Please model this.
Amino acid sequence: MTITLAGRTVQVGPRSAVRTLRGEVRAMSWSLRLWLLALMGLMAVGAVGALLAIPAGDEVFGTTPTVEWGLLIAAYVLFVVTTSGLCLVSSLGTVFGIEAFAPVARRAVVMAALCLMAGFGIIALDLHWPLRLLFGVVLSPSPLSPMWWMGTVYGIYLVFLIIELVGMFGGWHRIARLGGSLALVTAIVAPSTLGAVFGVLVVRPAWHGPFMPAYLLATAVLSGAAMLALLYALVARFSLRGHGPASERALTAIGRLLAAAVGAGIFLTAWQMIVGLYGGEPGSSEAAQAQLTGPLALQWWVVRVIIGLLIPFVLLVVPRLRTRAGIGIAGALVLVGLVADRSGFVMAGQIAPATSASGVVSDPWAVYTPSLVEVSIVVGAAALVAFLYTLAERYLDLTEPVAEHPAGSVAGSEVAPARAPADARGVA
Amino acid sequence: MTALSRRELLAAGVLAVPCLAGAQTLIGRALASDPTKAAGTEAETAYDPKAHEWGFVVDTRNCIGCGLCVEACKDENHVPRDPELNRTWVERHTQLPDGTLLVEAPEAGGAGFPVDPVTLAPMAGPKGDSAFVPRLCMQCDNPPCVSICPVSATYKTPDGVVLVDQERCIGCGYCVVSCPYGARYIVPSGGDSPTGNAGVADKCTFCYHRITKGAQPACVQVCPTRARNFGDMNDPLSPVSILIRDEQTVTLRPEVGTKPRVRYIGLPSQEL
Amino acid sequence: MYRRTRHDRPATDPQPSSLPTPEPTTPVDPQAAITVAPTDAAAAVAHGAPAPTDAAAAQPLRPAVTPPIAAASLVAVDPGPPAPHRRGRFRRTFVVLTRTAVAAVLLAVTGLVGLALFDMAYAQFGSHPDKDALAWSEHTPAYSLDGGCAGCHTVEAGHVRGSWHKDLRCETCHGPQALHAATATRTELGDVAVEPPSRDICRRCHERVAGRPADFPQVILSTHYEGAECAQCHGVHQIIAVTPPLISHPRTNLPDCIVCHAPEGIKGLPDGHKASTDAVCMTCHKPGKRLELDGVLE
Model:
């Protein structure tokens, strides 16, 4: 049986599938094969972790009533906020008409969809009864609950992303544009609802207040720009489809945006710590102390500040270092720093509790160590995103067709044709 | 069956909705009236939650930290035996000479507080003003756990008890994180479980199955020194009404605005 | 079922009709039928046929209107929609409404069945906090509801009532007994979870621990008649506080007595013996004057 997939006719059936698979693998370079194989190994590890986490109530996580939200919640925050960020950055090109950002739309939306689905998978494994959630949010909603809003808005967001993807790759331009605008609006609302999940809790001084919704929205731009910097540096490095003057311009623009976002990140983080520490207020200064001098200090100083903010800032600001590789490395480092940022603030709000919980007195810090199952789930999810994105980069056309741009004529548009020949594809 | 034109089919679909709604209402009403008839059909009348306002007063001046209440709660409610998962527990608060407050709860106080056999002194060696403070769910009148539950699994009954629908709870842990008093935990699998469900939130229910039959919660019943007191605040002669009227009572963390229903007498001067 | 109109009539209709049908042998020619059937002279003459014979003329005349009806009778069809008539329109509307109503009811029933199945499958349809509260109120208690065991255990309850433990409930020391109260009879013990009165029970409350009110009776256990059972001096239900008197000892059961009556041990003896505050033992067991007693000393 023959079907047409993404413009190519594909044979379907067990023997033809094996033949196609073998042909595809043969067409890959050794490094690409190694990359995919490594990712598959990590995905297998993640699958084992996921299977262990599925039975409801099994104590496979390191969470306790004192620290109920652990690594999985932090990873969820990282993935879904990155999704929003990718849409925000790509909207600079599609909605706000900034020409330099025009080429990024497809890559951004594909990566955004993958990240959102990974985030949902991770949170489904953290919830003990995920199926009840699907029915519960619809049949017994709680509009007073920020988590209800977050779940609903992110669910709608996924629908809009899918609409946009279908429109983009199916050739229905108006639907793609509609999906894009809707996704943009949701991309602004959704991380703020996620921030509100943390921000409404009076009992958690590290999170309480309007800072969290604003902070997550700001760091959405940071993580979206970082992810795109990494992706476009890879486009340049491996001469992927669409590499040309337009993508180079995009990379430069992303680099500038990333520099601004890192600057904002430094600003916000510094003030968060200063205000948290000021006056030694019992209950709220302990959380800041936990990150500055307490159990989270190593992760905060080394990973979040130095690796995640200071080194990328230097790479992006110093002209001699602001090369293609420099921007890409800065993006990668920012993402690493964001892992520490998300887990840091989720932990900080809980390991300095103001009261005992369920009979356990934590003095001075509660102890939380992520279990192997949690780590394997997060690693597996990241590997899955990387795996699927690699395949998307290889088999889908992630360049923007010239006629798409609503900003009007684009001078010096894509040099590479919409469908690159087979030998120009693939990783060196 | 006669075939329908498109218009007729549309009309039928529109008409089906009020039919369905009406039938659901009738059936729902018929079913809803059964449970109250089924339960308590013997000599006693059905329990009316609107007629009661349950209250709880903890007198820390009387508490001796024996921990029998913690064990009783676990026996009565099939709470998991893990000493780190408790519906209620006892702490010892000690005002140290340097002004700091030392809080201890070894095994949640459920095995009593240990005495060091060599020094004959309590384990943590406090040399100051000590008191035992039993802790449990405050059954707040403005409960943060109720408003933040994404699927409305937690609710407050008319008689003032906050309960969790363990068939609807998804185990997200938001209520556990949001409780200012640390009263909740997630039930693990493979052991005792209050309703047979695992992976759901659980907390003190004021022994709802006992108080609706006119009895006292298990922790109140076994307390040897009247440190725990329970009663109906609608009844001016109940123990809690008398205590609230005659003694100075405070609530824990009043600044978070949760309006806790459990009141304390005799707390040490430095609060949690 | 499909409602037929005049436009759908089939070419031939096997439905029998009261009207005369043509003979199969004759050609189906309406005009010919017209000319053949009527045998009256007028019609025949009208169609230019030869004058009928006498036999034909003897047949009764048929009315001139017969031919069109006879022609139509060749094929049995229903007369088609009646001419626009008020009664017919009501009938049509009635039929349409009935069909719609039946369809609506069937849809509603299907919807109800589907919702009931869904409700059974997921048990959280709609909002039922009162049903859940009812479920919580139906748990089985482990501790007895009234806390009183005096109905059967009148003697022990009376002892407790007259003791220092008069404000205590039975289950405080004896554990949850709801099942025992429900299953035991005068002759059968039933399901009981009695904690035997032992030092471990008493120490939960009466061991000296910081934080206990100063006026609460508490002792430092390691120096309080260690080895003795609390009940030996203080009783089981009729709790009293006693201090065992110092006595001169009997020749047998010495170790047991020492526990209470010389609790701090025996003084002035070589290593291996504990010190004592009273010298009762010393009156006989002076150093140098060693009395060999059964299985005791040295």
